[in-house]
Amino acid sequence: MSVFSRIVERVVEESSKVLVDRQRHVELITFAVILEGHVLIEGIPGIAKTLTAKTIAKLLNLSFSRVQCTVDMLPSDIIGTRIYNPKTGSFELRLGPIYSNIVLVDEINRASPRTQSALLEAMQERQVTIDGETVKLPRPFVVLATQNPIELEGTFPLPEAQLDRFFIKVEMDALERNALINLLRRNIKTIDTEFENLKPVVTREELFVAAEEVHKVYVDDSVYEYIARLVEYSHRHPAVRLGITPRGALMLLNLAKEYALYDHRDYVIPDDVKKAALPALMHRILLKPEYIAEGYTGKKVILEILSKVEVPKP
Fold first, then answer.
1. What is the pLDDT of residues 52-106, one digit of tens each?
2. Domain 217-308, what architecture?
3. Are strands 286-287 and 240-242 parallel, antiparallel or unpaired?
4. What's the whole-model pTM score?
5. Is the distance from CB of 298 to CB of 44 less than 8 angstroms?
6. Is there a shared CATH topology between the 3-205 domain and the 217-308 domain?
7. Is the Cβ–Cβ distance between 55 and 195 less than 8 Å?
8. Please, are residues 282 and 302 in contact by the beta-carbon 8 Å criterion?
9. Cα–Cα distance, 307 to 268 (Å, whole number)
10. How big is the CA angle at 231 (ends 304 and 274), to the nearest 5 degrees?
11. Hey, CA dihedral for 74, 76, 82, 84, is it positive or negative?
12. Which of 99, 87, 95, 165 minimizes the C-alpha distance to 130?
């Protein structure tokens, strides 16, 4: 078994002691953390988005911080600033909550565009600039940003440039009946106790080894061509104003490699690409207004593209 598979399987198994019916979400977010990819998590309040992020950080032995976005938040509240120290008579650098391995940015669309843009350099360059001084962020560095899909008043939708920086989008739904009953039986006190008892299941060095394993997964030319045809079709789809970017194609390939490795294979097959398509691509599709009015979504477009583009034969 690869180091990658062992890490993901152990995180999914241990997290089930705390989380109810979140195995698929834990799996995807762990995939992203291993490759230092950022995650956009969408879901209504009260479905354990924060607890999921904290659980994964604890199991992976990574530092965790949380930022609650509000409209009056300033960039310095996230990246840090210089504070005058009267004892020394000089300004000292105080780093913000961005300086962690996993940063949960809660309700990112409630932050102003100016504050949202402060995350761009950190997400892309893995560094921040404070008063002209560049500070490298710790590795791995991953932003988990949440959005509430039902409360849109007073929010600032993320621009396309920032959406494209997210490796994957994870949609967290409300629990089904049996899972909800299981949650009620556990109760909050039991869940809190189980969370406190969680122990790391991996070292930081093993995370980097797992990432190297992903990059070494073999990809046949026919799979490269399949991904290219998916991208090309996204630009021709009648509902799409802006299709999949080259960065989006790379993210799709990386996620497909992870699915292959998790399935104990060192090569990618078209089914891996199909499995990776929704989380890797649905947030990268910019729709025409008239199709939005008809109920089209990025997910619907990706499913249509997958049904139209011919799958390469072995």
1. 999 999 999 999 999 999 888 888 899 988 888 888 888 888 889 999 999 999 9
2. Orthogonal Bundle (1.10)
3. antiparallel
4. 0.93
5. no
6. no
7. yes
8. yes
9. 19
10. 55
11. positive
12. 95
